[in-house]
Specification:
- The protein is an alpha+beta fold and 112 residues long.
- The protein is 29% helix and 24% strand.
- Helix 1 packs parallel to helix 2.
């Protein structure tokens, strides 16, 4: 009987957020909760994308979805900010610039 090598998956079975990415997203979420704008969130880790959805109320559609799709890394960028109606608000290769429209909205909430 020969030695059988330990099987290794050839491809990741699900997409997830790295710790620094999730910290950045949750920091923004926490500030929006403190401002009284967001009340709930959901995370969906699928085989094609990881999605963070932020809700004003739990029973509504998410106000924003932050999607990470590694398959688009070499095309238009793996990060996307999607609005409540399903339209892409911002897309890019880096998380920071993709979150910029929400950051600007937060600044307006704080000033009011």
């Amino acid at each position: 009987m020969g030695v059988v090598p330990f099987p290794t998956p050839s491809k990741a079975t699900q997409v997830g957020f790295e710790r620094l990415e999730l910290n950045r997203i949750l920091d923004l979420y926490g500030r929006m909760v403190a401002a009284g704008h967001w009340r709930d969130y959901a995370i969906d880790l699928g085989k094609d994308a990881a999605v963070f959805a932020a809700f004003r109320r739990a029973a509504e559609r998410p106000e924003f979805r932050i999607e990470k799709r590694p398959s688009l890394r070499n095309k238009q960028g793996m990060w996307a900010l999607i609005g409540e109606a399903g339209a892409v608000v911002k897309r890019g290769h880096e998380l920071g610039p993709v979150l910029a429209p929400v950051e600007r909205r937060f600044m307006k909430l704080v000033e009011d």
